[in-house]
Amino acid sequence: MRENKKLRLKFTEYKIMELLWLADKPLSVDRIVEAVGVGWTKLRKQQNVKACLNKLQKLGMVEIKEPSIYYAIYKKKELNEILTEERGKKYREGSIILRLKNFLKADELSEKEVEELRKLLYEEVGREEKLGGK
Question: In this structure, which long-range contacts are made by residues 30-39, counting pairs with CB atoms below 8 Å and at least 24 apart in sequence?
Answer without folding.
Answer: 30/68, 32/70
